[in-house]
Amino acid sequence: MNQMYPLVYARDVARLGVPQYLATQCQPDTLDSYKVNGKIVLCFIGQGRNVDKGIEVSKAGGVGLILANNQDNGNTIFYDSHFISATGVGYDGAVTILQYIYSTAYPTAMILPAQSVSYTPAPFMAGYSSRGPNHVDAHILKPDITAPGLQILAAWSEASSPTKLPYDRRSTKFNLYSGTSMSCPHVSGVAALLRAVHPNWSISAIKSALMTTASVTDNLNNPIQDYTGNPATPFVFGSGHFQPIKASDPGLVYDISYDDYLHYLCTINPGLLNKVNAKINCPNQLASPLNLNYPSFVIPNLYGPVTVTRTVTNVFDGQSRYEFSWNLPQGVSILVSPTVLVFDHVGQSFSFTMTIFPANDYSVRNQYVFGWYMWSDGRHLVRSPFAVFLP
């Protein structure tokens, strides 16, 4: 600790005859122990397990590992339970380190004790996060919402090693883990709390509350970024990053009954009704799947005017007056009716329609564009995203 060590790039300390792309990733038996001994090595992620790259560095006599993202993984930093002192850097950080290595006669680095740091911008969308459009039904915007899921410190069974690898004999009570395995418990826990606070709410009402109160800005008050550093879209984060406290008081909700879902199945695949053992007769003239009372929507092809109907229910204790607003993407116009809703009691519902038109803008074609619409009474912001494909 607190000692400077020589810093090298794995490609430059490869064994004779080893292909550069394998050495760059610190694949097994690629590093020259004479060139690596006593040094910190910069390796790139790629083929093979990340912890095995650290093992290769250690086997060659290295004292530390900097595991760098390739360009495809951007700035989503991966942390693993290494067997050697190690850290991870995003692609931008890797480029900076390489510039330092090749512009300095004797590049060095220091291994410091781990410490907690604040990350900005946060949140941002990890590179592995699932993305839309929805391949099951293009009219339903997915994902619904995003929640913390990258490098979450969580309880861990001591019966399992931190890497789960057969040669790992270590044990720990806590471990860092990433993925929907981490984000799903966050949302599920908040949904359970909302059910405790509002025991009469339906599952759909809880989902609506989570979605319509989500945030689309980070801790710098900028739009949430994708792992590339560019602004993310609803096909990346859905309605946004969940806000549990605001979800407990959403003002209005988009509720959906069991029968509503059955009629929705009629519009996309009536054969699915047999699989859920539903006793319902589909109407002869099917409504559009766009009219499922979801808190968001997608128009897969906007050739002409498309009307979307939604119903909102007041869950706020008191009289309220809501006004409609929107943010339209380029190439789209909208007509809304009504634009004002006045509620006088809890449980009261009103329907409204949105007719979406393709604008005469031929500079935006053959792509999805994104916008949002919102009801507000001055206290509650009931916000929903939408996506439109302009053919």
TrEMBL record:
Protein keywords: Glycoprotein, Hydrolase, Protease, Serine protease, Signal
UniProt xrefs under CDD domains: PA_subtilisin_like
One GO BP: proteolysis
Domain Subtilisin-like protease fibronectin type-III: 291-388
GO MF term list: serine-type endopeptidase activity
Peptidase S8/S53 domain span: 118-240
InterPro entries recorded: PA_domain, Peptidase_S8/S53_dom, Peptidase_S8/S53_dom_sf, Peptidase_S8_Ser-AS, SBT, Subtilisin-like_FN3
PA domain location: 5-92
Family: Belongs to the peptidase S8 family.
Protein name, as recorded: Uncharacterized protein
Protein species of origin: Gossypium lobatum
